[in-house]
Specification:
single chain, 108 residues, alpha+beta, three-stranded antiparallel sheet, two-stranded antiparallel ribbon, 3 helices, 5 strands, globular
Length: 108
């Protein structure tokens, strides 16, 4: 009985402390992008710890949004699209990087 109560208490404390589990700032450790204010949980290599990071701006490298929730290249900011290899092979081998583009500019 004490164990579920302790877990509930820890969750309440975490949310009261400014979001130790969710609503994380850039640079804080994360497990999923949903935990980050920026919506990007980023790691530099397979052995590195993932941290919250800014989404990619126009003309920066990006990854398409994925179901994994952790990225080697962050997805694009709102309003931009990631022109990348969206094949299954690219997704599995983690080579599906592209460049953030403004779709409004490419049509002109």
């Amino acid at each position: 009985m004490a164990s579920p109560l302790l877990l509930l208490l820890l969750l309440i404390l975490a949310s009261a402390q400014g979001g130790l589990i969710f609503n994380l700032d850039n640079g804080e450790l994360c497990l999923q992008s949903a935990q980050c204010k920026s919506s990007c949980c980023h790691r530099t290599s397979g052995l590195s710890l993932a941290r919250c990071a800014n989404q990619a701006a126009e003309n920066q490298e990006c990854s398409p949004k994925s179901i994994y929730g952790v990225y080697y290249k962050c997805p694009c900011e709102n309003g931009l699209t990631c022109e990348a290899d969206k094949s299954i092979v690219g997704s599995i081998t983690n080579t599906n990087y592209g460049i953030c583009q403004d779709p409004g500019r490419s049509s002109k």
